[in-house]
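Duplicate of #3305? Posting structure anyway:
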C-alpha cells in the first residue's frame, strides 16, 4: 500500500508528539527532514501537533488518576509494621507528599476556574443589572 501525504503526516505527528526529534520523526514517516520542517512551518500542522500532544497528556492523566487509588492502597499497605522501617518511612513520606500536592493542585484548579468564570464574557442575550 502506497503512503499518501495524509498517512505520512499522521506518522510524523505521532512520532513528534511522542518526543522524537524532527530528523527521527521524518525518517519514521518516510520523508526528508526538510519536508518535516516545512510541515512544522504550517500553522495548521502545528495546531494538529499541539492538539495531539494535549490529547495524549489528558489520556495519560486519566490513566494515572484511575490507577491512583490502587497506588495509594499499596503505599498504605507498605506502612504495615511487618514491613522494614525504611520502606514504611518511604511509603509514609510519599503518601504525605502526594496528598499535599494533590490538595494544592485541586485548590489551584478551583481558583483558576473561579477566575475564568469571572473573566468570561456574559452569555449572548444576557442582561446586566
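Output from current build:
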Amino acid at each position: 500500500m502506497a503512503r499518501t501525504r495524509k498517512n505520512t503526516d499522521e506518522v510524523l505527528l505521532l512520532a513528534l508528539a511522542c518526543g522524537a526529534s524532527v530528523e527521527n520523526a521524518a525518517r519514521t514517516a518516510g520523508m526528508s527532514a526538510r519536508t518535516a520542517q516545512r510541515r512544522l512551518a504550517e500553522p495548521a500542522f502545528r495546531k494538529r501537533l499541539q492538539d495531539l500532544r494535549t490529547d495524549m497528556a489528558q489520556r495519560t492523566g486519566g490513566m494515572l488518576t484511575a490507577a491512583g487509588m490502587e497506588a495509594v492502597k499499596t503505599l498504605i499497605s507498605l506502612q504495615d509494621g511487618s514491613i522494614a522501617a525504611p520502606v514504611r518511612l518511604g511509603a509514609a513520606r510519599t503518601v504525605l507528599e502526594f496528598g499535599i500536592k494533590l490538595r494544592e493542585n485541586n485548590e489551584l484548579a478551583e481558583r483558576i476556574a473561579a477566575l475564568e468564570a469571572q473573566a468570561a464574557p456574559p452569555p449572548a442575550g444576557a442582561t446586566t443589572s
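Confirmed duplicate; merging threads. The two ends are 64 Å apart (CA to CA). The CA atoms of residues 26 and 35 lie 8 Å apart.
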